[in-house]
């Protein structure tokens, strides 16, 4: 049996995924979680073979969850199931050790097939996204991405500085670098552009 854990913040989607996968004779759904932090606790408790996670969730995102699995060197294969057909997200997912990346509008049987493939050491990546992912590199470093995301949430440079334990001047420098790299007019435009590309 392939032991699977689901991380998805939408209750109806979470229930549907669990019901669909439970119909497969070789897949056991151990449980599900509504956010990234709860998923991390469930991962530690159940130690699944495969974690199927959305990207956008409260607490930890699916990408941050995958990074945590990778950092702790857990023998868990991660499959991203998302609505975001953004090459930047796929690149970051692959950097985080993700083995599968599927879109939610894919046929249902593709998810079970992807789970089997990654469990046995393979990859399951949407082919068009795989091509697009290498067409444009993410220009932001991790700190610029972090600061820009917080600025996009409406925090001031001072608020971000306090939150990240940096000086306000350092935060402004990171924002300036991000704006310049994205050829944006201001931090809001930079945030919008980076989000469209999947770099945030």
Description:
With 200 residues, this protein is α/β, with parallel strands linked by helices. The chain folds into 2 domains: 2-133, Rossmann fold; 142-197, Arc Repressor Mutant, subunit A, CATH 1.10.10. Helices cover 52% and strands 14% of the residues. It is built from 10 helices and 6 strands, in the order βαβαβαβαβαβααααα. The protein has helices at residues 11-22, 36-46, 62-71, 87-95, 108-119, 127-133, 142-152, 157-164, 168-181, 187-197; strands at residues 2-7, 27-33, 50-53, 77-82, 100-103, 124-125. A 6-stranded parallel sheet has the order 2-1-3-4-5-6, sandwiched between helices. α7 crosses α9. The protein is elongated. The two termini are 36 Å apart.
Summarize the structure.
By secondary structure, this protein is α/β, with parallel strands linked by helices.
Total separate domains: 2
CATH class value of the largest domain? Alpha Beta
Tell me the number of strands. Answer: 6
Side-by-side strand order of the widest sheet: 2-1-3-4-5-6
CATH superfamily membership of the largest domain, which one? Response regulator
Helical content band: 40-55%
What is the H/E string?
A: EHEHEHEHEHEHHHHH
Mean pLDDT: 91
How are the elements arranged and paired?
Elements: E1 2-7, H1 11-22, E2 27-33, H2 36-46, E3 50-53, H3 62-71, E4 77-82, H4 87-95, E5 100-103, H5 108-119, E6 124-125, H6 127-133, H7 142-152, H8 157-164, H9 168-181, H10 187-197
């Amino acid at each position: 049996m392939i032991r699977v854990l689901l991380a998805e913040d939408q209750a109806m989607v979470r229930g549907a995924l669990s019901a669909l996968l439970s119909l497969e004779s070789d897949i056991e759904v151990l449980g599900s979680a509504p956010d990234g932090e709860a998923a991390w606790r469930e991962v530690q408790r159940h130690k699944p073979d495969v974690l199927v996670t959305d990207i956008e969730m409260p607490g930890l995102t699916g990408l941050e969850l995958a990074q945590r699995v990778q950092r702790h060197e857990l023998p868990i294969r991660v499959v991203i199931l998302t609505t975001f057909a953004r090459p930047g997200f796929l690149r970051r997912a692959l950097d985080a050790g993700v083995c599968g990346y599927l879109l939610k509008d894919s046929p249902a049987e593709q998810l079970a097939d992807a789970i089997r493939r990654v469990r046995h050491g393979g990859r399951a990546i949407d082919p068009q996204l795989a091509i697009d992912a290498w067409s444009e590199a993410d220009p932001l470093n991790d700190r610029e991405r972090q600061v820009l995301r917080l600025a996009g949430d409406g925090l001031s440079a001072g608020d971000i500085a306090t939150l990240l334990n940096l000086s306000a001047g350092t935060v402004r420098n990171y924002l300036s670098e991000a704006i310049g790299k994205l050829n944006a007019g201001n931090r809001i435009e930079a945030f919008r552009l980076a989000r469209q590309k999947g770099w945030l």
